[in-house]
Design brief:
single chain, alpha/beta, Rossmann fold, 41% helix
């Protein structure tokens, strides 16, 4: 599932999220923020799609049905073609251990759900800086 096309001069964000309502919410926030979005509902395609799309940043939900978001992040960060793409872990988990696990897996940022649009877009901007 892709939302919007890639427009020259605009940053592209890939969103890996299994929950339909969350996909819709975060994709709309990214579009409001002026980003092109590439949305995946199946995390098993994340590595291949990241290599094809070459997004400017990737947002990965941590609690996914088929593969842990931590495994997705580790895969992205250990593959030559995707290791430099900034990754944000987005999760309902909010303990210090959860944050530590996400950062240890290679996430560049950690955000807990739910978030507010302004805070979310600020985090994306910081991730891309």
């Amino acid at each position: 599932m892709t939302t919007g096309g890639r427009v020259a001069g605009r940053k592209c964000i890939m969103l890996v999220e299994d929950t339909p309502s969350h996909r819709k919410l975060y994709a709309s926030w990214l579009e409001i923020g002026g980003y092109d979005t590439h949305v995946l509902e199946d995390e098993r395609d994340a590595q291949r799609r990241a290599e094809d799309v070459r997004p400017d940043a990737i947002i990965v939900d941590i609690r996914l049905p088929n593969l842990s978001g931590l495994d997705v992040i580790e895969g992205l960060k250990t593959t030559e073609t995707t290791r430099t793409i900034p990754v944000m872990a987005l999760t309902v988990l909010d303990s210090p251990q959860d944050k530590e696990a996400c950062l240890a897996a290679g996430a560049d940022a950690f955000v807990t759900k739910p978030d507010h649009i302004a805070t979310f877009l600020d985090r994306i901007s910081g991730l891309l800086a």
